[in-house]
Amino acid sequence: MKVVLQNLTKIFPSRDKKAGKEVVAVNDFTFEIPDGKLIGLLGPSGCGKSTTLYMISGLQKPTSGKIFFGDDDVTELSTENRGIGLVFQNYALYPHMTVKQNILFPLQNLKGADKLTKDQMLERAYEVAKLVQIDELMERKPSELSGGQQQRVAIARALVKMPRVLLLDEPLSNLDARLRLQTREEIRRIQKETNITTVFVTHDQEEAMSISDMIVVMKLGVVQQIGKPQEVYDDPTNLFVAKFLGTPPINVLSGRVENGRVYIGKDAIMDVKGVENQEVIIGIRPEGFELNENGALRCEMNNVEVMGRDVSIVSTNPASISPCIRSIINADNKVDLANKTVRYNVKPHKVFLFNKETEERIRYEVK
Ligand code: ADP
Ligand code: MG
Questions:
Q1: Atom of ligand 1 lying closest to residue 170 CA
Q2: What band does 174 get if pLDDT is binned at 50, 70 and 90?
Q3: pLDDT tens-digit profile of 130-171?
Q4: How far is the CA of 30 from the centre of ligand 1 (A)?
Q5: Ligand 1 contacts CB of residue 259 (under 6 A)
Q6: Residue closest to 364 by CA, chosen among 263, 295, 284, 262
């Protein structure tokens, strides 16, 4: 089921009627979520991810704009009639019910033509329990389960009505690091097996990048960029997106373009064609540096962190806007800490230029 968001906007009135300003939580969001795909809705806290999800679910009504499931306009439809499955961060299971009763619960309220017999309900419940691998735990109470198991129950409960769309709001945030990794792989597997169009909300860029077919990056209610994770990482539209994706984060420096060359201080780090002379913000991905004793960019060596296969060289440069410059270099390179200066050449496709005022990307041809 494709999901179409058309100029979706949500404005919350000010809580303090006199002093406060209204909040534009989601601002003119237009996007067609393709059928059967997993979309990662990504951005810092407060950027409007949950509000977008709640509008798709029907829990919140848009101030303006429309939502379609397939060709059906569902904008005015109640949550119960949209055929969605919802999973929240805090699992929200009924504590006094067993796992089985929790999963059965949504089926017991089905009415009319959708009504199921007891045997049909049980069959469905065991089917989804198997899918999320909790069929051995059906008689337990939620308090007798780990966080990861509880979240699987919540996912099973969301899937049991065979929703047209699955909506997940930070479903992994309450899990510890290892379980988070494992559960996100599980969610991806389940999504692929069921082929349900899924919207996955998270503030964690790595999480979104690793499981999404496409990501939507939001800031202050406004969509910044939509694309495949790798495409957005390789080709960010502005400084915000460049900074939001990637660990370690992109290095940000101030510099200038002069007669077709990019300068950081006195160091000319690369040539660019067709860019006017101007001051710029320069972003260099950590993997965009090459150690070279005659390298164009000179930095002051601080520290070398061993990461196994790679090393991370921490250095400083007067032009750096980030507190330090972090490069990721293959550990085969010998790095001499006794050197005060570390010199790099940069890989042009790992360097982005941004307008100093608007922070929008400055485009040029990369050879
Ligand atoms: P996110 O999920 O990305 O953290 P939200 O969608 O929850 O962000 O919130 C977006 C913005 O809308 C925030 O500024 C938040 O304070 C505001 N907001 C959310 N819900 C309400 C509400 N019910 N009333 C007023 N403001 C709200
Ligand atoms: Mg939220």
A1: 2
A2: confident
A3: 988 999 999 999 999 998 899 999 999 999 999 999 999 999
A4: 19
A5: no
A6: 262
